[in-house]
UniProtKB/TrEMBL annotation:
InterPro entries: DUF423. The keyword Transmembrane applies. It comes from Polaribacter filamentus. Its main location: membrane. It comes from the Bacteria. Keywords: Membrane, Transmembrane, Transmembrane helix. Belongs to the UPF0382 family. It is found in: Membrane. This is DUF423 domain-containing protein. One of its GO terms (cellular component) is plasma membrane. It is a multi-pass membrane protein. The chain crosses the membrane at residues 6-27, 70-89, 101-121.
């Protein structure tokens, strides 16, 4: 599981840099300022949680079930939150908004909150 945290942290960090550059250079002319700001929010949260996964991967216990839950919460939350934002922004820029993605963003946010809450619990106990 720790290896998954490190792999996903690295992958999410790498793609956050790529998506950030994509947004700053290629999408700047295509998106409204609000859409670009939303896209950047997705990139920021993706990078923040990539860093968290890398730190956790180097510091958590290998077989602790709580640690596994924390890692899964951050991975699932980041994928749902950031990638639903990317999908919403890009689809609305093409006037074909994918509406089912709307409820996925807060669900991803709930997973992220759960990951942080579990981390608090781990440190408090």
């Amino acid at each position: 599981m720790i290896q998954k945290a490190l792999i996903f942290g690295s992958l999410l960090g790498c793609t956050a840099v790529i998506f950030g550059a994509f947004g700053a250079h290629l999408l700047k002319k295509k998106l409204t300022s609000d859409q670009l700001q939303s896209f950047e929010t997705g990139v920021k949260y993706q990078m923040y949680h990539a860093i968290v996964l890398l730190i956790l991967g180097f510091n958590l216990e290998l077989n602790a079930s709580l640690d596994n839950c924390i890692i899964y919460a951050f991975i699932i939350g980041t994928l749902l939150f950031s990638f639903s934002i990317y999908g919403l922004v890009l689809s609305s820029a093409n006037n074909k908004k994918i509406k089912f993605l709307g409820p996925i963003t807060p669900l991803g946010g709930l997973f992220l909150v759960a990951g942080w809450a579990l981390l608090i619990y781990k440190f408090a106990v």
